[in-house]
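Reopening this one. Same input as before:
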Amino acid sequence: MNEPKNTFLFSWNPIKFNWPEIGEQSELLRSGGKVEDSWTCASHKKVKPGDRAFLSLVGLEPRGIFASGYISSEPFIGKNRKGNNAYRVLIDFDVLLDPAHEQILTLDILNIGRMEKQLWTPQASGIAIKSELLEELEALWQDFISSRK
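Same output, byte for byte:
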């Protein structure tokens, strides 16, 4: 039996880190292209290629999940936004919404019921999501994505 994959939450704060190409990347992914990007990962000792990744918008409203994908690299040392060395991983996106122009899965929905046990707007990027919430999160995200189409 395959070991269950871990799932990690990465955070993006547009106040601290500009992402000018998010609109183009979102469009590219929607049209069947591949979008892969590197992110700082606090859980670098646990993360493995194939693990699930979700990205949360923090710092300004609307806060919540706007992207998902899979870890596509082993952790490596790279420069963070401050220019310091940090552990990073590549994320191969399967969904990438542009929060400036598209609705995202907001905190008011994420904080309902058992889901409120998870911090959805972490300071550190690349933290583990509680295993007992993974199935519910995946179902919530898939419902959200399909309701947008």
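So the earlier flakiness isn't reproducible anymore. For the record, The first strand starts at residue 7 and ends at 12.
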